[in-house]
Amino acid sequence: MLLRDSMSSTRSIFGSFDGESAHQVDPDGGSARSQVLGNQDLLELAFSFFDIHPKHILFSPVKLNKNYRSDSKYLLWASMTCKAFFEPAMNVLWRSVDEWMPLIKLIPTLIKQGNVYTTSRSIRQKDMQRFHVYARRIRHLQFIGSTHHLSYHIIRSISQNRQFKTFPTLQILSIPRFGSIVPENVPLLYLLPSSTLSKVSIAGVNPASEVLAASLLRAIRVESEIVTEVKLEGKLTTTSLDVIHEFRTLQTLHISIQDNGGAFPSQFLKEISETTSLKSLTLRLDSRVVFNAGEDEPLDSGPRNRSQRKSWRPNFRSTFSTLNTLELLGSAVAVKGILHLVFAPHLKGINEPLDSGPRNRSQRKSWRPNFRSTFSTLNTLELLGSAVAVKGILHLVFAPHLKGISIILANLGSIESYDIMCGCIQRIAVDMADCLESIQITSLSPGVRLPRQTLSWFHVFKRLKTMQIMVDTLPKDAISVLVPLRQWATLETLKLQVGQASLTVPPSFSLSHMTLLVMLCPTLRALAISVSLTFLREDIKSMREEITKGCSCHKLRTLELLPPVDPIPSPYCSEDAITDKSSRSKVGFSYQDIFTISRFVDHLFPCLTKMDLSQIVYTMDIGWCEDVMLTLKQLQEVRRDKHRCV
Fold first, then answer.
1. Which structural domain, as residue segments, surrounds residue 614?
2. What's the confidence (pLDDT) of residue 356?
3. Residue 117 within a domain
4. Range list of H helices, 502-571
5. What does the pLDDT average to over 214-218?
6. How far is CA 83 from the centre of its chain?
7. Are residues 502 and 619 in the same domain?
């Protein structure tokens, strides 16, 4: 019954395609129908919507949807609806395979004896036909080390069949747990290389399996000349790394080195720089991996004069002429060393999530880089890590044309927050402000404050369009401090969010502070801000006085009121720092102030099209929020006809 229903549904989409009607050509639609049935690529695209198999994930085992096996029956049913559907439906069904056993079980004489798969008789060539019919469809293969062993004669039968390539259309190969492959299944690895292979991912390499991993990589390189992406993860040494530069068509390289008991071979950078097609490079070094600059690579400080700095190059530097994106993760010393050795004239993006660096205060004081790398074409910079490491990297990087910067600080106590925050902001203001259009400063842990004196540096950002500041504490008069400096004539998006400290100390902002924002940011279009939700009488009085003045005619379109920011879960932040929203008590309110607040917002921002209070419903009564929104909407409807700015 289910099969009949599925066939009926499939026919309803494509028409009736049973054996008899397939030969009856409709004068009007027969030609179009024949074109559809004859276009295997089009049919395969249509059947791809039947497949809910999760996308192939490199570097991690794919977890199948628990309903995948039952849902795959729709592709099977579609393949049986008519002859023209069989090939494209089977191609979709078999294009991603997460283990070998479904293929092996296609061998008709297969049996299991204990923990070993074998056959009831010797394997003939015709026994392997079904295997190759479906193996040739596989494009994504994830090889997971199984606890089941294959009899060696099965592997030999597969490899010795000269009539067929094992995986003639394989494009993506992922081996997430390379070190756990049992020796009996190792010969299967050498059946995987294919001339169509373009992406390779091998993770879980350990000292015992590294030679095998290097051998497999070399076999892939010999078989395929179109490999564009390689990801290699584990306890890596030069044994496996020395093979990477042999992939001459490589465009994306991801190397993740865990504690290997040795040093990172800096010669590796020179080798891969010879790959003329490399566009994206990711290097992740365990904090225990030592960085060795090498004897022939003196890391001197270079000239301090800026004009001389442009033409100066260290004695040894690897030139990546085509590199666009660089991501570095490791200790501050390792990142510093790598930046010394890399010259990428066309780099467009760099991401450096750093580890905590030296924790001892005496060591921290002595960690001061004296060499700065110039990134003349860098547009975007994102730094995530301990505050001392982020500050150090900012001293290393000179990016005169930087347009966007994001710094996410962690492991910063309130005692040191003043000096480090000042240092970060000062470095950005001095060297990166000329072209800067976007700045984001985020804290991952409680206790981070943006000091009053630091705000004076913000006046140098003359082209700023987007600013986001999310820290634990901002000065209560932060906006008042910024207003006398100068207007941000170009600022369009502003987000100011304070943290949990605002629940126990006087809040940073109130609604009445928005009058200052109108003066400070005349071109602002979107505003998200944490405000005090306990409306003091002085605040209400200030709002009523503002309403009596002339309308501001400000062009703000979107206003969002925010609660205190939650510390973001991260490797640097403990879970006990996170506060459950449901445990917070609701703030008291007064309905008599609803009209004043609504009029105040409408008065300041007559062009407002969206006001979002959804983030504060757990601190304010939802009915209060709805009343504010309704009143504001009614005020806009009354005022719209007479206000010239709308």
1. 495-646
2. 44
3. no
4. 514-520, 537-547
5. 95
6. 43
7. yes
